[in-house]
């Protein structure tokens, strides 16, 4: 084990994210999948996924998210859900709803799926369909009703950004009409495609404050009938979040091609080789691999984190954000106002207060754009 990893006892993972595929019928402008997803290898087979589920459960994972891309594009989703249920996981399907139907939801329910989280892009058909570059609003609406009809709690997720944040009240009214018990209004985090499109997506401070106030009014109106989570964008904070509760601490993500990550954005970090479940056991990857030990503990930290009392709470923030915005993943997350690079965040925020025409058109997440971005290896933000 590395020096950094040996500083504290490494606990077992609790939460497995199974990214079953990068394929998706939607083309969301803020998708968190890698911008070069077309470069990666063949998807794991059913047998390989079953092995991953067993190994992760044996390591101690108890929560399992089936995600993607769109996990419903895998014909073996029902079989994987069944196996996960048999192993004793609490399972969650994270889906756009495209590919769901009466027959599949009945099979998923019978297989023991615990939870379905459905995403909408907006409360209006026009914007939902624009942001996903597909005509999916009506379908999503029907899928929400289907999920409810099968006895699942209604859990809606809407990613917020400058294009839709002024619709928060209408989004919450839609959620109420659909009988939602939980709504997650997650402001965009600027990684992946959202980072490429940041100058189109980062809201102004005024928009953010209006949306928070509207959310609070709605909470007071609906009381306990609906739980509403409002996740503030990092860029408007002055301290970073404890990303993943610390690198390699509780969360493990297995990518469609079997590569294992401590956070679903980490694949692009320099100088690290993330092992695949095709060549190593999950146990070795979690406890022993150099990549998982690289940012454990505190030995890797630079100033100002190294001597900061808050390092035990936030672990210096997000390594991926530090790399994207400063070029060095060992720097403090520049969201922190103690970081010498904090101005890269405040400059982006300042631009969002007086948006002019962005330097490049909005890029939808699709294979053509993914190939162009990987070939050009262009800097990904203005
Ligand atoms: S964010 Fe949109 S494009 Fe990306 S995986 Fe989810 S539904 Fe598909
Ligand atoms: S300096 Fe580092 S440890 Fe201290 S608050 Fe900022 S990011 Fe956290």
From TrEMBL:
Per its UniProt record, the required cofactor names are: [4Fe-4S] cluster
Q: What is its EC number?
A: 1.21.98.4
Reactions catalysed according to its record: [PQQ precursor protein] + S-adenosyl-L-methionine = E-Y cross-linked-[PQQ precursor protein] + 5'-deoxyadenosine + L-methionine + H(+)
User: What is the name of this protein?
Assistant: PqqA peptide cyclase
According to the record's subunit comment, the protein's assembly and interactions are: Interacts with PqqD. The interaction is necessary for activity of PqqE.
Keywords annotated in UniProt: 4Fe-4S, Iron, Iron-sulfur, Metal-binding, Oxidoreductase, PQQ biosynthesis, S-adenosyl-L-methionine
Q: How is the cofactor bound?
A: Binds 1 [4Fe-4S] cluster. The cluster is coordinated with 3 cysteines and an exchangeable S-adenosyl-L-methionine.
HAMAP family in the cross-refs: PqqE (MF_00660)
| Protein family (similarity comment) | Belongs to the radical SAM superfamily. PqqE family.
Under CDD domains, the record lists:
Radical_SAM, SPASM_PqqE
Under NCBIfam families, the record lists: PQQ_syn_pqqE, rSAM_more_4Fe4S
Does this entry carry the keyword RNA-binding?
Answer: no
The pathway this protein participates in, as annotated, is:
Cofactor biosynthesis; pyrroloquinoline quinone biosynthesis
Q: Which residues bind [4Fe-4S] cluster?
A: 24, 28, 31
Q: Which gene encodes it?
A: pqqE
Record-level Gene Ontology MF annotations: 4 iron, 4 sulfur cluster binding; cyclase activity; iron ion binding; oxidoreductase activity; S-adenosyl-L-methionine binding
Provide one Gene Ontology biological process annotation: pyrroloquinoline quinone biosynthetic process
Q: Which PANTHER family match?
A: PQQA PEPTIDE CYCLASE, RADICAL SAM DOMAIN PROTEIN
Tell me which residues make up the Radical SAM core domain.
Answer: 10-224
């Amino acid at each position: 084990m590395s020096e950094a990893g040996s500083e504290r006892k490494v606990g077992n993972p609790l939460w497995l994210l199974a990214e079953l595929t990068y394929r998706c019928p939607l083309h969301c402008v803020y998708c968190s999948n890698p911008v070069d997803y077309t470069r990666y290898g063949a998807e794991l087979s059913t047998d390989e996924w079953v092995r991953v589920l067993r190994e992760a459960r044996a390591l101690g994972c108890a929560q399992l998210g089936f995600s993607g891309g769109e996990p419903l594009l895998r014909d073996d989703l029902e079989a994987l859900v069944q196996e996960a249920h048999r192993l004793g996981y609490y399972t969650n399907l994270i889906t756009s709803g495209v590919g769901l139907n009466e027959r599949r939801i009945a099979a998923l329910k019978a297989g023991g799926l615990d939870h379905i989280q459905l995403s909408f892009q907006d409360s209006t058909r026009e914007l939902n369909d624009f942001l996903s570059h597909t005509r999916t609003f009506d379908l999503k609406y029907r899928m929400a009703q289907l999920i409810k009809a099968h006895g699942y709690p209604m859990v809606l997720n809407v990613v917020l950004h400058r294009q839709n944040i002024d619709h928060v009240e209408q989004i919450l009214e839609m959620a109420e009409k659909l009988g939602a018990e939980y709504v997650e209004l997650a402001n965009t985090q600027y990684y992946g495609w959202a980072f490429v499109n940041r100058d189109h997506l980062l809201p102004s401070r005024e928009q953010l404050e209006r949306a928070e106030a509207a959310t609070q009014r709605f909470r007071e109106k609906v009381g306990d009938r609906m739980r509403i989570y409002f996740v503030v964008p990092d860029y408007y904070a002055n301290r970073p979040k404890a990303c993943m509760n610390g690198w390699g601490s509780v969360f493990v993500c297995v990518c469609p091609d079997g590569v294992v990550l401590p956070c679903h954005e980490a694949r692009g970090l320099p100088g690290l080789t993330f092992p695949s479940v095709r060549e190593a056991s999950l146990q070795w990857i979690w406890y022993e691999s150099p990549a998982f030990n690289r940012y454990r503990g505190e030995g890797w930290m630079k100033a100002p984190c190294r001597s900061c009392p808050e390092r035990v709470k936030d672990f210096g923030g997000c390594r991926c954000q530090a790399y994207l915005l400063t070029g060095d993943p060992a720097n403090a997350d520049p969201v922190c106002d103690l970081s010498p690079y904090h101005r890269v965040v405040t400059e982006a925020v300042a631009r969002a207060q007086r948006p002019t025409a962005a330097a490049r058109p909005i890029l939808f997440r699709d294979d053509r754009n993914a190939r162009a971005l990987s070939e050009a290896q262009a800097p990904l933000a203005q």
